[in-house]
Design goal:
314 residues, mainly alpha, three-stranded mixed beta sheet, 10 helices, 74% helix
Length: 314
């Protein structure tokens, strides 16, 4: 079935071949339909959020500015992997050039690093808005917001550039078949003839530090938010705040749990967890959150709903 294209070369291959989700080839058509639907939702939802926020000056507040950046990052993240996934699942278009593979790797992992930073600053924004409302505008000034956004971007670049360099400079002299649906760095590094331990260890430690610190600060922010919420006298206000926080935590769980599980399983559970489960975990955290974020963070917000309704009416 794989034929002659899936060969073994004695030099760095000009092309890699992505197999999709190993063991689930019979479900590839349904996966293609599902991925296409989520990608369309991602593009429409995030583009609508971007358009509404940029056009309406009343929405030029810290929370909406961060949401605008998150929407842009989600579009880039999904666009870096989903079109190729759909091509693989629907028509078997599995080939990807060496340079395109590492470009895809860089963008998907850099945007995931940016995403976790944005979730952190949005949690901090909610903490300031709820726990220190009188100081909101004095704390989250345009300069502070720009500094946060630049820090998130620089952190992602600093993390991803060495990793991309280390993996791309490995010697690939064996199989050019990547057992994954996109150029995930550990799946590609496994094909190297030289020991990929240094890049894999760097990825594990770097991801653990970034995600671990972000999750710790997010948890601290929402703990303080919940304390403030339970001190509110109005039950309706409590329920509304709990509903908002609950939906935010759900989206974060759908992002962090599959993402970190895929990293640790690739390291510790290769012989325990089936390969198709490992690949599905890695696929889920780059496909589902970008589709849900504009709904949870955007459409559930009253100001954005009103502006979207007004925009559609005109």
């Amino acid at each position: 079935m794989m034929g002659t294209p899936y060969n073994h070369t004695m030099e760095t291959p000009a092309t890699f071949f992505l197999v999709g989700i190993p063991g689930l080839q019979s479900s590839h058509l349904w996966l293609a339909i599902s991925m296409s639907a989520m990608y369309i939702i991602t593009l429409l939802g995030n583009t609508l959020i971007l358009t509404i926020i940029l056009m309406d000056s009343t929405l030029h507040e810290p929370m909406f500015c961060f949401l605008c950046v998150l929407a842009a990052v989600d579009i880039v993240m999904a666009s870096s992997v989903v079109p190729k996934m759909v091509s693989i699942f629907s028509s078997g278009g599995s080939s990807i050039s060496f340079n395109a593979c590492f470009t895809q790797m860089y963008f998907v992992h850099a945007t995931t690093a940016m995403e976790t930073g944005l979730l952190l600053v949005m949690a901090f924004d909610r903490y300031v808005a709820i726990c220190k409302p009188l100081h909101y505008k004095s704390i989250l000034t345009p300069q502070v917001m720009l500094g946060m956004s630049m820090t998130i971007t620089i952190r992602a670049v600093i993390f991803m550039t060495p990793l991309s360099y280390m993996v791309s400079h490995l010697l690939f002299c064996g199989s050019n078949i990547v057992l994954h649906s996109y150029c995930e760095h550990m799946a590609v590094a496994k094909l190297a003839c030289t020991d990929p331990m240094s890049s894999s260890l760097y990825s594990l430690i770097g991801s653990s530090i970034i995600v671990g610190s972000d999750v710790a600060f997010i948890a601290a922010s929402y703990t303080l938010i919940l304390q403030a919420v339970f001190n509110l006298s109005s039950k309706n206000a409590q329920l509304k705040a709990l509903s908002t926080c609950g939906s935010h935590v759900l989206v974060m769980a759908l992002y962090y749990l599959p993402g970190m599980a895929s990293i640790y399983v690739a390291w510790l559970g290769q012989d325990i967890v089936p390969l198709h489960t490992q690949v599905l975990l890695a696929d889920l955290y780059v496909v589902i959150p970008p589709a849900l974020n504009p709904i949870i963070y955007g459409l559930r917000t009253k100001q954005i709903r009103e502006q979207i309704w007004s925009f559609l009416m005109h």
